[in-house]
Amino acid sequence: MAIVSYIVLTLFFILTPAGVIWLCRRFSWLDKLGPIMVLYAIGMVVGNIPSMPEQLKVLQDILPNVMIPLAIPMMLFNSNFTASEAKLQLKVVVSGFLSVCLAVVGGYLLFGHHMEQGAQVSGIITGMYTGGTLNAAALQAIFRIKSETYLLVNSYDIIISFLYFVFLFSVGIRLFRWLYGERGRKISEADRVELEQMIESGKANPYKTFWTKSGIKELLKILGITLVIVAFSAVVALLMPEGWFMVVFILLLTTLGVVCSFIKRVRNLTRSYDAGMYLIYIFSLAIASMADFSNLDLADGVNQILFMTFAVFVSLALHAIVCRLMKVDADSMIISSVAFINSPPFVLMACAAMRNRSVLVTGLGAGIVGYALGNHIGVLMAELLSIL
User: Fold this and answer.
1) What is the pLDDT of residue 336?
2) In whole angstroms, what is the distance from residue 124 CA to residue 140 CA?
3) Which phi and psi angles does 377 have, rounded to 5°?
4) Residue 307: which of 114, 151, 76, 24 has the closest Cα?
5) By the 8 A CB rule, do 94 and 323 touch?
């Protein structure tokens, strides 16, 4: 019986994105929402159905950890990079870290100081929203806050992150592009033509030729190269000191994906980006199914959920303002915000929603810096707020 449950649930996660893509192309109102938003909604509904089989929890742990390492190199193979990328990275990192820290301080003064271990929770939130869940877990071990409090932090984060994505993917992207000017990005005529072609190709069905003879042959090449990159990155990361695995793993995946993009034969594997995007659709469905509303305790955790909501949305607003002052384009601002608030795995999802692969490395780079420095900033924040 358990095997049957595994098979049924696995098929659900793998095939549902294909059905959603078909529906989005058939109904314009669904297409406006986009496959990711639809999959998020489906996942949250499924995750809160009573008496779901225990095998769902197992797949929720496995699928995100498998999909993202495979998707990162795939989505980078077709990328083109410019010399200005390093300068842009510095701007978004400075803006993002500053915005999160200011938002957390404001949230602590309004809500956090009413909470038990409020300064330590603030440190965890800072690490979480400059790095990711990995940093939050490390900081929880450092501060030794109650497990119940940490569980609520994670539960609230899933819900607040969902609301963050709803805002970004429904109106946020268009709003920031409008506020920043035309797509918020100054580009050359050649880049403009390429961008328009990318957007137009996104409207066509990129998966139509996947199961042709040439499509299958190309997909096997893509998978083979990707598996070599993932295996090498994992082996090297395992040799690193404890706590550095994820930082090194993501860094190597990104670096090797970028290196391969300069190899003509790899860059000409035109289906790699869309193959990676399909893995992101599976990831989105799996992540959304983890939102368990039964864990929410609004009566006892009202200050905590208000604190985290304030930190997320105020940091987004501050990041938008600072990036605008630094003359950072809208798409780079958005993708870096996603990297900080949600961590690098979600960068690929946002890139797909924006239909702009040119900012992929910007987001992944910002997220890697967040992974590396999130623990340090979280500890400093907790120490600072504990003396207030």
Assistant:
1) 93
2) 7
3) -65, -35
4) 114
5) no
- Residue 102, domain member (yes or no): yes
* Residue 143 lies inside a defined structural domain of this protein: yes
Residue with tokens 């239909």: 355
3-state helix, strand, coil in the chain (%, to 5): 80, 0, 20
pLDDT digits (tens, 9 = 90+) for 358-371: 788 888 888 878 87
Domain tally for the chain?
1
Q: Is residue 16 part of a domain?
A: no
**Whole-number mean pLDDT of the chain?**
82
pLDDT given for residue 58 in this prediction: 86
The structure's pTM equals 0.69
- Residues 16-72: tens digit of each pLDDT: 999 998 888 888 777 766 787 788 788 888 888 887 788 888 888 888 888 878 987
Please tell me the distance from the alpha carbon of residue 221 to that of residue 364, in angstroms, as a whole number: 24
Phi, psi angles (nearest 5°) of residue 291: -75, 105
pLDDT tens digits for range 221-237: 999 999 999 999 999 98
Pairwise CA distance, residues 34 & 50, whole Å: 27
Residue numbers of the domain that contains 205: 68-386
Question: How many beta carbons lie within 10 A of that of residue 24, not counting itself?
Answer: 20
Is residue 221 included in any domain, yes or no? yes
Query: What is the spatial distance between Cα 281 and Cα 279, in angstroms, rounded to a whole number?
Result: 5
Q: Return the structure tokens found at 174.
A: 């268009």
